[in-house]
Design goal:
The complex is a heterodimer of chains A (98) and B (540). Chain A is α/β, with parallel strands linked by helices and 98 residues long. Chain A has one domain: STAS domain (Transcription Regulator spoIIAA, 2-Layer Sandwich). In chain A, 43% of the residues lie in helices and 32% in strands. Chain A has four helices and five strands; from the N terminus they run E-E-H-E-E-H-E-H-H. In chain A, strands 1, 2, 3, 4 and 5 form a five-stranded mixed beta sheet that branches. Chain A is globular, with a radius of gyration of 12 Å. The mean pLDDT of chain A is 90. With 540 residues, chain B is α+β, with helices and mostly antiparallel strands. Chain B has three domains: 188 residues, 2-Layer Sandwich (Beta-Lactamase); 61 residues, no CATH class; 228 residues, PPM-type phosphatase domain (Phosphatase 2c, domain 1, 4-Layer Sandwich), CATH 3.60.40.10. Helix content of chain B is 49%, strand content 20%. The radius of gyration of chain B is 60 Å and the shape is rod-shaped. Classes of the chains: A alpha/beta (98), B alpha+beta (540). Chains A and B meet through helix 2, helix 3 and helix 4 of A and strand 14 of B.
């Protein structure tokens, strides 16, 4: 998994590539935690994400909860595989997917 | 390790090096001494020879040469002259005093006008007028110089390994007439026997001195090396061997044994420090290992407790002929977050649960325990599947700072009618098989995961099971099992595996799935839990 991180004032854009599973999810969580302070808009690009496990979904849920308090969060370029996972787990109902 | 071998090699190399240097040194000194001895003696010899020649020149009357020539060297005067020269030759220690006249055309022949020889010599002198070939080119060159270049003296040195003659020098001065023309050459030849003797003596002395010196150096150097290098190195070697065997600090530190401020002393200090660090490290590792083992035991126990929470006795309901149920869980780690559950709420209602907690390890296991108990409690209170999920979700959300969640499929079967009411909180789709049909994915309505957000409403649906219908629920460990080529097992392969044994008992069906997944992933480590539950409805 690799994460590309672009911060512009209070907008944080993350591009997540590869597999987000039990092993890599903590890195994903750290990346969000250390950058999220003062952010009003969080955009997560999942175009090149291959797989997300429940551990990765938990990170998205945590991020969503933080952004509910301090701004908004968007998830974009969700590919078919990931969308299936979102639909099965009901994450499509709580995430703003573009 | 062969200690002795190392010992020899260090001293040997070092001594050999020194011997080489000394040999070079002695050869250099020898050559230098040899040269200066030769030069000094030559100078002395040549000076003597020229002095003799000068005296002889005074004695010799040049003007009379023609006269002697005519008489063939038989006159009184000539004999008188000869006697004087002979005395001079003997007195001066010269070997040979003679006057010659070279053939001026090419200097290849010389004519003796006069020759006297030392009385101790084995040779005899040449008669007047004796003609012989010039000895060699060197002599010709000297003669030519004296005649044509009008040099005042010439010296010829023959000291280099001649076998036929001893080393000797020949001093030559020209004899000139009143007009200053060279008419004859006066030569004084001296043996240099002393030179050779002294030189050989010198070389022998140099040889013996250096031989003694070399032996001395070998002894001293070996002793010195032994003291400075070998003893410390032996101590260091012994200490390192002892340390690797015993892994304890020494009674006496190396730096106390080797009191030296050179590199060896530094090495000894470093080894002391290294030993201390290693022992400290070993202690830490030992502690960490004990701690790790303790944790591993606890993990193991936690796993056992977790499994003991699940119904694992099959057949689970031997006296109920209306259905058959089988479930299995193969956790990827000691403890995982997957679980299944089934229990009778009352005589006519069977509750089925399959769930997957986010994450792995102890936190997931604890979370799983809590949710399992919540689901069971709410079910036993008589709530419907969606009500159970909603109540459990709200209860979990009240205290879930870590944002953990659990996906659940929960169904309640009315045994008498075959009506299955179910609700799905973010869990995998169930697979259903109609009697004599095939397993197919049942795309049920999905709600959000449990524990994610408070106040979620879950949808509920009903499926009528007929006699022979089968239901298969599972966790993502099955469909997301990954092989070496990073390929997922997927729904298709799962359905194929189900349908291979679709007519058989739930137990055989689950075993076949496990087998198929194992074949698919081959050598890849099982990454996720493999949890499955299969129900066969047999009707009344």
């Amino acid at each position: 998994m690799t994460i590309e991180n672009v911060k512009k004032e209070d907008v944080l854009a993350l591009k997540v590539e590869g597999r987000v599973d039990t092993t890599t999810a903590p890195m994903f969580e750290d990346e969000i935690k250390k950058n999220i302070e003062g952010i009003k808009e969080l955009v997560i690009d999942l175009e090149k994400m291959d797989y997300i496990s429940s551990a990765g979904l938990r990170v998205l849920l945590s991020a969503q909860k933080i952004m509910d308090k301090q701004g908004k969060m968007k998830v974009k370029n969700v590919n078919e595989n990931i969308m299936d996972i979102f639909e099965i787990t009901g994450f499509d109902t709580i995430l703003t997917i573009e | 390790m062969n200690k002795k071998k190392h010992k020899i090699s260090i001293v040997f190399k070092s001594v050999i090096g020194i011997i080489c240097i000394m040999i070079l040194f002695s050869v250099a000194i020898g050559i230098m001494g040899f040269r200066s001895y030769t030069n000094a003696l030559l100078e002395q010899y040549s000076e003597g020879a020229f002095n003799t020649a000068k005296i002889a020149k005074k004695e010799f009357d040049v003007d009379k040469i023609e006269e002697y020539a005519k008489s063939g060297g038989k006159t009184e005067e000539y004999l008188e002259e000869w006697q004087k020269m002979s005395d001079l030759c003997n007195a001066s220690g010269s070997t040979f005093v003679y006057v010659i006249r070279p053939d001026l055309k090419d200097y290849k022949h010389i004519t003796f006008l006069f020759s006297t020889i030392n009385k101790n010599s084995d040779y005899s002198c040449y008669d007047f007028g004796y003609v012989r070939e010039t000895t060699n080119e060197e002599y010709m060159e000297k003669y030519r110089n004296l005649y044509e270049n009008k040099t005042n003296k010439e010296l010829l040195v023959r000291d280099k390994g001649y076998i036929e003659t001893d080393p000797h020098i020949t001093a030559m001065i020209p004899l000139k007439d009143n007009d200053g023309n060279t008419v004859a050459i006066l030569c004084v030849q001296r043996q240099m026997d002393k030179l050779v003797k002294v030189r050989n003596n010198y070389i022998a002395k140099i040889f013996y001195i250096f031989l003694v010196l070399i032996i001395f150096v070998i002894v001293v150097q070996a002793a010195y090396l032994n003291h400075v290098f070998l003893r410390p190195f032996t101590s260091i070697t012994e200490e390192t061997i002892r340390f690797s065997d015993e892994n304890t600090l020494p009674e006496k530190k190396l730096s106390e044994k080797i009191k030296s401020n050179d590199e060896i002393g530094i090495l000894a200090d470093s080894i002391d420090n290294m030993e201390e660090s290693i022992i400290k490290y070993i202690d830490e590792v030992t502690k960490a290992t004990i701690e790790k083992e303790r944790i591993a035991v606890e993990f193991d126990l936690a796993g056992k407790i977790q499994v003991s929470m699940l119904p694992t006795t099959f057949p689970a309901f031997p006296d109920r002929k209306e259905f058959d149920i089988y479930a299995s869980m193969n956790p990827a780690k000691e403890v995982g977050g997957d679980f299944y559950d089934f229990f009778l709420i009352d005589d006519d209602h069977l509750c089925l649960v399959i769930a997957d907690v986010s994450g792995k390890g102890v936190p997931a296991a604890l979370f799983m325990m809590a949710s399992k108990i919540l689901f069971a409690n709410y079910a036993k209170m008589g709530k419907s599947p969606s009500e159970i999920l909603e109540a459990a979700n709200n209860a979990i959300c009240n205290n879930n700072p870590e944002n953990m969640f659990v996906t659940v499929w929960l169904g309640i079967l009315e045994i008498s009618t075959g009506k299955l009411r179910a609700s799905n909180a973010g869990h995998e789709y169930p697979a259903l098989m109609e009697p004599d049909g095939k397993f197919e994915i049942y795309k049920d309505k999905h709600g959000f995961v449990i524990g994610g957000m408070k106040g979620i409403n879950y949808k509920e649906y009903e499926v009528g099971l007929k006699k022979g219908s089968k239901l298969f629920v599972y966790t993502d460990g099955v469909v997301e099992a990954t092989n070496v080529g990073k390929e997922l097992f997927g729904n298709e392969r799962m359905l194929d595996a189900l349908n291979e044994k679709s007519v058989e008992s739930p137990e055989s069906i689950l075993e076949n799935i496990k087998k198929s997944v194992d074949i698919f992933v081959e050598d890849e480590e099982q990454f996720d839990d493999l949890t499955m539950l299969c129900l066969e409805y047999k009707g009344k």
